[in-house]
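Please, is this right?
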Amino acid sequence: MPEILYRKWRPRSFGDLAGQEHVAQTLTNALSTGRVAHAYLFAGPRGTGKTSTGRLLGKALNCTDRRDGEPCNVCPSCVDFLAGRAMDLIELDAASNRGIDEIRSLREKVAFAPSGDYKVYLIDEVHMLTDAAFNALLKTLEEPPPHVVFILATTEAHKLPATIASRCQRFDFRRIPVAAAVATLEKICEGEGFTCESAALELIARSATGSLRDATNLLDQMATSYGKQLTLDQVRAGLGLIGDERSGSLARIALSDDLGAGLALIASVRDDGLDLRQFQKELIEELRALLMVKSGLDPDEGVTQERRRDLEAAVASVPVPRLLAALRAFGEADLKQDPRALYA
């Protein structure tokens, strides 16, 4: 069975980490200068590289030919890490191993010497541990053996006890910017022999809302559905997007307060069998873009000059309060129930 893309294309070095340059630079500096902390807290949304970074750190700590903080990926230790058989990396999923017994077992094994330089404990979703488990973990964090490094990963750092968080060096992982996600997807497409339009990759990246794992899974799904030659229309269909130009038309009609034209257009969308809620989402995105341009900002990364001129012309004589009112109305209304509520 072929390996799924997000596992196959996990970053092999800190330089491969997309959108987390601040984390990569700090960790490589720490590795280069020998100032590695005994405990790290990786916090941030799902799919932003927390677990991958934890594995990278474990690999780099045990690499026998590390250069500028980067693992060599060819020494026996690195090869074991890449193959998933490293004895010095112990991963624990706190969502399913959240009790005190699991942490007590971990504490008993901490004293054992590593086969390399460091034994790395990566505890994912650490906020799921019970209070008793946190108390047991605290004792180990207070006085850890010199050969042990703890990496705690979580999507909800606020749920960690202050006593745990204060003993860790914290890194906040950001949502992956669209440009960085697209660059990574392009690299994957090149490696896998996929041909995909740039606009289609951008659409995938936006749909993933900052999660590179989700974006990679979506690309995998599209390739499975449509083959290695992907077009924008195929990706739109695969993601369930409408891509109907009438969303832009309705945005402009709403700003002109033309009730009759607006209701007629919504009726035509409904009669064509399109998903009104998805149409509403695209309409809100168009209004957001109009508001951004009115405020002197770029609506999206990489927006074309033609698109920008079109948006500027549409809002040239529209006051900001009207744009805000339209956004609020479409954000709160339910087109499937009563489209007339938009014009109330």
About this structure: The mean pLDDT is 88. The beta strands are 39-43, 89-93, 119-124, 148-154, 169-172, 195-196, 229-230. The longest strand covers residues 148-154.
